[in-house]
Amino acid sequence: MKTAIIYSSKHGTTEKVAGIIRDGLSGQDVQLISLKNHQNPDLSQFDTIVVGGSIHEGRLSGKVKDFMKEHTVTLLQKRLALYMCGSNEKELQKEFETEFPELLRNHAISKQMVGGEFIFENMNFIDAWITKKIAKVSASVSNLKEDAIKQMITDLRN
Ligand SMILES: Cc1cc2nc3c(=O)[nH]c(=O)nc-3n(C[C@H](O)[C@H](O)[C@H](O)COP(=O)(O)O)c2cc1C
Q1: pLDDT tens-digit profile of 16-73?
Q2: N or C end of the chain: smaller count of CB under 10 Å?
Q3: Pocket test for ligand 1, best of 21, 51, 87, 121 (most atoms within 8 A of CB)
Q4: Cα-based distances in Å from 89 to 55, 83, 93, 114, 135
Q5: DSSP character for 116?
Q6: Which CATH architecture has domain 2-116+144-157?
Q7: How far does residue 40's CA lie from ligand 1's centre (Å)?
Q8: What is this structure's pTM?
Q9: Domain boundaries in the chain?
C-alpha cells in the first residue's frame, strides 16, 4: 500500500499536518508531495491519496482546487482522504463543503477540518495586517485539532 499526501501550504501549517499524518502512518510507504513544487504529480503508483489544503479569505488554495479538478476521475478510483486547515471555527464546515467538490467529499473515507495556525514569522506584510485587523490576532498561535488529525490517521490505518 502506497500513500501520497498531496498539499499546498501558504505559511507551513498544512505542510506540518501532512508531516504529522505521515508520522502517524509509521511502517507504511508514505510520500509527501507539495503542489508548489509538483504541479502535476503522477498518481498511478499510489493506492491512497490524501489531499490537504488551507483556507485564506474564504477560499481553498487554488493549487489544491486545480489539482482536484484535473484529477477527479483518478481520485474517484483511489482510497481518498481530505483535510482542510482553517482558523474560523464557525465557518469550517461551510468552507469545507463549498471548497471541496461534492463528488470527492462523498467518496472520501476520511474528511477532517483540522484547525489552523497563525505564524507571523512566515507571513508577508499584507497577510500579517489582515490577520491583525480581521482575525484580531497579534501573535503566532496554534489551534490545531489533535483529535481530528488522529481520526484521519485511524481512518487511514483501517
Ligand atoms: C490572511 C489570512 C486569511 C485567512 N482567512 C481564513 C478564512 O477565511 N477562513 C479560515 O477558516 N481561516 C482563515 N485563515 C487561517 C488559515 O487557514 C490558517 O492560518 C491555516 O493554518 C493556514 O495554513 P497554511 O499555512 O498551510 O496555508 C486565514 C489566515 C490568514 C493569514
Answers
A1: 999 999 999 999 999 999 999 998 899 999 999 999 999 999 999 999 999 999 999 9
A2: C
A3: 87
A4: 12, 15, 8, 10, 11
A5: E
A6: 3-Layer(aba) Sandwich (3.40)
A7: 24
A8: 0.97
A9: 2-116+144-157
Residues with a CB atom less than 6 Å from ligand 1: 9-14, 54-58, 85-88, 91-92, 95, 116-118, 123, 127, 130-131
Cell of 148: 481530528
Atom of ligand 1 minimally distant from the CA of 144 = 21
Q: Closest Cα to residue 118, out of 51, 35, 61, 54?
A: 54
Atom of ligand 1 nearest to the CA of 122: 25
